[in-house]
Every structure is written in structure tokens, then in C-alpha cells.
């Protein structure tokens, strides 16, 4: 029987930048890539245990931590000033310092009650806004701080995908945590991505992610370090002798997802496409590229056809070939004079392929190596960092706390998930939704 989770809002504030945004910075243009990004929020939840045994101190400790979060958030917004503004007409941000909604909530259980077997959809109650909310077209950042009866805390952050990819969100969290601890090691100056890819009047509507499909199921699968090493060895081949842990895990998930889809259709097969998000910051090799905020990402494409052999090592080769094709062709175009046309052509291709009935379509985004477990606001690093992404046919990969394993969050239809989560090859390497210990 699923547990009932009551999350009661006890206070809502608007946090504004600690210093007003100068008039010269009141308009922050979106880039073309931002304009094409889906209207949705990127959600993250950071979990912190209670670090005191004194029951009388729980309320005072919670209030003290929340005040520190508010003050440091205000100071951080002075640096990330667009986040306190509002998106206008899918083309620019009015940096008007309207502020960020900051919600404080009380949860009617102990933190470990949830973490014994985390329910992916139940966790969304700890976020300040639904991932699919249309508010993402205007409001940029929201925060929700959830206090548990034991003194534990979960901080939910939702940042509009219209202005931020995971790298931008990670940069913001790192800066916020550093400011909370009084550090001066923060981002010196934000680089607008529009300087490379200016906004334009789009000849078509940006892709809309459909979240309202019925009967979706999101599951969490954990590949610990030892199993990941074995999986990498089994995924190796002459062409790819040393696959990365991400390549090995993605290939296995893709293989099992294809099998689940085929089984659900009674054996009828379809070609399968897998899109992987590609962070362009290091690949473009531009000065201060790490400071670009926005959707500085593209996609590599891998395809598996029914008549091809879908062994694990074969799928790893397809993933590697897709990335090689991206580096040799798409990346070159993005660095050339036809970059705008290349961006628009890829966006059209994604829209056409992911809405086609001729393909099974999956997307994967790796959040590994983004140091999300470094979000220490002054009371220690989080015991767990959790994704709140529940988009159909989408897989999010995250580091386990030790940084060596992989935690995968996957959303499929309930019918397909029933086949997927019982796949014996998958279960040889992954644990299904194990307990989390903070």
C-alpha cells in the first residue's frame, strides 16, 4: 500500500536580488537554442539528514537553515540576475528583479519513511512547481524547502528549461552553496549565449513535450560501482575497447527498453532512435565557455533497426558512432557560418522523428560528473541528489553518492515498464529502487 504524504505549505516568500540590477542589464536576450528548448522546468531535490539529536532544537535549526538559504539566495541572484526576472515572448528576459518564489513546507513523516523506497511520483510533491507547468514560459526559478518531523530537510529546485540546461543549473547551485558558506569563489560574470546564437523569429513552433499521456511509470535503477565495472567489460568490443560507464548503462537501458516495447506490441518491431544530450561548452572550445548560461547543448542520434543485432557491444558502438558523427558533422556546422541553419534543421528533425509512428523514440541526458553532491550550504553535503524528471521515454543518469556508480531514472508507459523492470539482463546489473541512506 502506497504511503500517504502530506506536504503543508507554512510560508511563501519572494526573494529578490540583494542589489538592484543595473539599467544596462535590464534586457537579457534568449539564444536561439533557448527559444527552441521545451517549455518545462528542470527539477532537482537535495536531501539532508538531521545533524542533531536534541528534539528541542529541531524548529530552531530549521529556521536558522532556511534563513541562511534565503539570504544567500538573495546574494546569488545579484549575480544570476536574469533568474529573478521574467521571460517575455520567448525571446528575452526582462530583468526586473521581481524575484524568486521561496516556499517553506512541513512534511508529515520522517525523512527515512520516504527514502526506504522512494516513490518517484510522490517525490514531485517536494518540488515547488510541476515539471510540465506552462509557468516555465515566464517564471524562471522556484525553490521549496521541505522540513521533516525528524529534522531532516529536502530542498526542491525548479529552473526553467527556457534559459537553463543542467550545466547552468549546476553552476547556479554551486554558486549558491559557495555564497552560503561565505566563499568568494563564485562565477565572475555571466556569458549570454545569445552572443553566439541570437534570437530570431522562428519559422515553426518549438517542440512541446507531452506529459499528459496516460499510464506513465517512472522508476529508479541503481548500478553500483562493482556492477558498472562488470557491465563495461561486457560492453567492450574491438571497436570500443573501453566504453564509459555512461555508454555501457545507456546501451543496456536502450536494449531493455526496445525489448519491452516489442513485447508490449506482441512481437512487432520498429526501428529505434536514441537521442543523447551533448554539452557544447567543452567541444566548442571558446573562452570562458563554462560561464555561458542557457541551453548550450545539442543532440547526438543513434539508431537501431529490427534487422540489426542488438547485442550490448553493438549498441555501444552505435552510441559511439552517433557521437563521432556529431563531432565530425554537426559540431563543425555549429562552429561555421551556417550555425543558425544547422540548429533549426536539427530542431525540425527532432520534431519530425519523435512524433513519427515509424520509430520508437528515446532521449537520454547524463547528469553525471556535474558535482551535484557538492551542494553544501553550510551543514554538509546532501546525502542524496534526486531527479524529478518524469518525461515520457526519457532517461536521466546521475552519479551515485560515491561518484562511481550510476542512478538511472526512466519513464515509460506502465505496460512497457512492466516488461522492462523484470528484464533478467537488466536485473543482473541494476537494483530496482533500493533504499537511500543519508
Would you mind describing this structure in some detail?
- There is one protein chain.
- It contains eleven helices and 18 strands.
- 42% of the residues are buried.
- The model has no long low-confidence stretch (mean pLDDT 93).
- Helix 2 packs across helix 4.
- Helices cover 30% and strands 24% of the residues.
- It is globular, with a radius of gyration of 22 Å.
- The two termini are 24 Å apart.
- A hairpin with a 5-residue loop joins strand 7 and strand 8.
- The protein is of the alpha+beta class and 438 residues long.
- The strands form four sheets. Strands 13-11-14-16-17-10-18 form a seven-stranded mixed beta sheet, with helices on both faces. It has a six-stranded mixed beta sheet with strand order 1-6-7-8-3-15, covered by helices on one side.
Q: What percent of residues adopt helix (DSSP H or I)?
A: 25-40%
Strand proportion: 15-25%
Head-to-tail CA distance between termini: 24 Å
Radius of gyration: 22 Å
Label the structural class: alpha+beta
Placed side by side, the strands forming the largest sheet appear as: 13-11-14-16-17-10-18
Tell me the major beta sheet.
Answer: 7 strands, mixed
Determine the number of helices (DSSP H or I, runs of at least 4 residues).
Answer: 11
- For the secondary structure, the number of strands is 18
Order of helices and strands: EEHEHEEEHEEHEEHHEHEEHHEEEEHHE
Pick out the low-confidence regions.
none
Taken from the alpha-carbon principal axes, the silhouette is globular
Amino acid at each position: 500500500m502506497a504511503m500517504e504524504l502530506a506536504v503543508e505549505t507554512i510560508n511563501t516568500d519572494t526573494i529578490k536580488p540583494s542589489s538592484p540590477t543595473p539599467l544596462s542589464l535590464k534586457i537579457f536576450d534568449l539564444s536561439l537554442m533557448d527559444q527552441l528548448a521545451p517549455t518545462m522546468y528542470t527539477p532537482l531535490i537535495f536531501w539532508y539528514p538531521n545533524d542533531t539529536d536534541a528534539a528541542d532544537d529541531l524548529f530552531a535549526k530549521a529556521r536558522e537553515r532556511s534563513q541562511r538559504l534565503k539570504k544567500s539566495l538573495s546574494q546569488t541572484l545579484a549575480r544570476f540576475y536574469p533568474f529573478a526576472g521574467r521571460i517575455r515572448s520567448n525571446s528575452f528576459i526582462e530583468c526586473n528583479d521581481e524575484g524568486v518564489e521561496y516556499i517553506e513546507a512541513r512534511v508529515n513523516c520522517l525523512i527515512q519513511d520516504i527514502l526506504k523506497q522512494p516513490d518517484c511520483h510522490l517525490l514531485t510533491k517536494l518540488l515547488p512547481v510541476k515539471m510540465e507547468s506552462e509557468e516555465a514560459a515566464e517564471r524562471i526559478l522556484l525553490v521549496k524547502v521541505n522540513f521533516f518531523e525528524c529534522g531532516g530537510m529536502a530542498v526542491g529546485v525548479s529552473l526553467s528549461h527556457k534559459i537553463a540546461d543542467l550545466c547552468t543549473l549546476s553552476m547556479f547551485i554551486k554558486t549558491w552553496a559557495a555564497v552560503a558558506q561565505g566563499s568568494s569563489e563564485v562565477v565572475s560574470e555571466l556569458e549570454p549565449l545569445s552572443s553566439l546564437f541570437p534570437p530570431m523569429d522562428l519559422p515553426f513552433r518549438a517542440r512541446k513535450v507531452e506529459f499528459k499521456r496516460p499510464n506513465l511509470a517512472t522508476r529508479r535503477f541503481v548500478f553500483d560501482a562493482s556492477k558498472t565495472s562488470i557491465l563495461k567489460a561486457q560492453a567492450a568490443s574491438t571497436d570500443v575497447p573501453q566504453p564509459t560507464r555512461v555508454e555501457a548503462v545507456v546501451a543496456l537501458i536502450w536494449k531493455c527498453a526496445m525489448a519491452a516495447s516489442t513485447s508490449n506490441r506482441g512481437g512487432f518491431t520498429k526501428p529505434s532512435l536514441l537521442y543523447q544530450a551533448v554539452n557544447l561548452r567543452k567541444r566548442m572550445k571558446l573562452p570562458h565557455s563554462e560561464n555561458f548560461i542557457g541551453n548550450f547543448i545539442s543532440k547526438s542520434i543513434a539508431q537501431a533497426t529490427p534487422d540489426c543485432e542488438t547485442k550490448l557491444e553493438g549498441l555501444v558502438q552505435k552510441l559511439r558512432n552517433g557521437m563521432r558523427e556529431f563531432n565530425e558533422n554537426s559540431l563543425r556546422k555549429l562552429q561555421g557560418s551556417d550555425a543558425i541553419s544547422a540548429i533549426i534543421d536539427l530542431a525540425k528533425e527532432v520534431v519530425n522523428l519523435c512524433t513519427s509512428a515509424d520509430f520508437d523514440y528515446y532521449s537520454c541526458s547524463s547528469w553525471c560528473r556535474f558535482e551535484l553532491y557538492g551542494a553544501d550550504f553550510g551543514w554538509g553535503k546532501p546525502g542524496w541528489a534526486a531527479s524529478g524528471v518524469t518525461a515520457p521515454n526519457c532517461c536521466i543518469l546521475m552519479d551515485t553518492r560515491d561518484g562511481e556508480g550510476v542512478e538511472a531514472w526512466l519513464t515509460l508507459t506502465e505496460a512497457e515498464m512492466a516488461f522492462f523492470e523484470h528484464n533478467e539482463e537488466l536485473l543482473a546489473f541494476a537494483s530496482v529502487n533500493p533504499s537511500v541512506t543519508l
